[in-house]
């Protein structure tokens, strides 16, 4: 994709997802594993995105291209909104008895320590790799949303769809700062991707286990959930299977974030959002196009 074809980065503020008390505990297909996978991601976002913003900001003064400098500003603004909205969603998890505050505090402490002791180019490379992980997840969700979220609460899916759309919009920012402002090279880029891949899944699984415990799911029941859950994530029709090629592209010498990832569903989300200003309707246009928009009023009233 030519740079002139790339979508502009727009920060959408004051969105309303209406996370009322009637959002089901297991909002994704009444399935504890699937729900807690996304919940664990949400729980990790505020601390992780704060870290990403800090690491990009470390090099903001070294950005020479004015258009990239503007993108850095929008990236920071978007991530701020993501953290705010996910923190709101996470309050629901806290009310369910999930150890949100404890995990968030420990994550922030660990990331702050990491930032103090590691070179800034290293933490920026980690950020660029983390942004690639979030963007391939976003592309995957847009492409497979109709399957993954076939039975889900649309308010929660709308949160992840909005976040995913903005992750796609700013997916190249940290990578360009790494290349252009930090003069980052290949080995560090590839090495940090391997690190973040392991860290992302292991920490997410750790948080999920904490959540299963808080849910009161017995250990032998948890043990039985993992094989099926891992197949859902990595199996032939799994969530991450379509993203594999896109993931591996990061290890190419000439990697560019805009080389891969379908944009049709993103464009559909964006045009619907631009026309309505409603993240739920934009999500529905991508994930459940067969649903009539007139159902929106009924859904909200229900
Ligand atoms: Fe984000
Ligand atoms: Fe991001």
In short:
With 302 residues, the chain is mainly α. The chain has twelve helices and no strands.
Q: What distance separates the N and C termini? A: 43 Å
Structural Rg: 19 Å
Give a quick account of the main beta sheet: strands, pairing sense, barrel closure: none
What series of H and E elements makes up the topology? HHHHHHHHHHHH
Total number of β-strand segments? 0
Assembly type: single chain
- Name the structural class: mainly alpha
Low-confidence stretches: none
Mean pLDDT: 93
The geometry reads as globular
- Note the beta-strand portion: under 5%
Helix content: 55-70%
Q: In DSSP terms, counting alpha (H) and pi (I) runs of 4 or more, how many helices?
A: 12
List all distinct small molecules, including ions and cofactors, that are bound in this structure.
Answer: fe (ii) ion
Topology of this structure?
Elements: H1 32-57, H2 66-95, H3 100-117, H4 120-148, H5 154-169, H6 173-181, H7 186-215, H8 219-234, H9 244-248, H10 264-276, H11 279-287, H12 295-301
Helix pairs in contact: 1-2, 1-3, 1-4, 1-7, 2-5, 2-6, 4-5, 4-6, 4-7, 5-11, 10-11
The structure holds fe (ii) ion (FE2) (2 copies).
């Amino acid at each position: 994709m030519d740079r002139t074809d790339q979508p502009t980065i727009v920060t959408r503020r004051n969105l309303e997802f209406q996370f009322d008390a009637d959002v089901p505990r297991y909002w994704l297909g009444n399935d504890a594993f699937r729900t807690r996978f996304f919940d664990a991601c949400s729980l990790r976002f505020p601390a992780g995105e704060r870290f990403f913003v800090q690491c990009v900001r470390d090099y903001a003064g070294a950005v020479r291209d004015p258009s990239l400098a503007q993108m850095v500003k929008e990236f920071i603004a978007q991530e701020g909104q993501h953290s705010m909205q996910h923190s709101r969603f996470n309050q629901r998890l806290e009310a369910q008895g999930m150890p949100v505050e404890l995990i968030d505090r420990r994550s922030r402490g660990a990331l702050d320590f990491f930032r103090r002791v590691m070179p800034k180019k290293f933490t920026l490379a980690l950020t660029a790799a983390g942004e690639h992980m979030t963007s391939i997840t976003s592309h995957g969700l847009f492409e497979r949303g109709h399957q993954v979220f076939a039975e889900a609460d649309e308010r929660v899916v709308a949160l992840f769809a909005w976040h995913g759309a903005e992750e796609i919009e700013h997916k190249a920012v940290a990578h360009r700062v790494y290349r252009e402002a930090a003069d980052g090279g290949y080995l560090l880029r590839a090495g940090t991707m391997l690190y973040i891949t392991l860290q992302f899944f292991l920490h997410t699984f750790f948080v999920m286990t904490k959540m299963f415990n808080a849910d009161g799911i017995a250990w032998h029941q948890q043990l039985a959930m993992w094989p099926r859950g891992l197949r859902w994530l990595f199996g032939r029709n799994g969530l991450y299977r379509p993203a594999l090629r896109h993931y591996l592209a990061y290890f190419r010498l000439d990697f560019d974030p805009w080389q891969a990832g379908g944009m049709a569903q993103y464009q559909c989300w964006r045009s619907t959002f631009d026309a309505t200003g409603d993240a739920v309707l934009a999500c529905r246009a991508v994930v459940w196009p067969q649903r009539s928009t007139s159902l929106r009023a009924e859904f909200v009233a229900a």
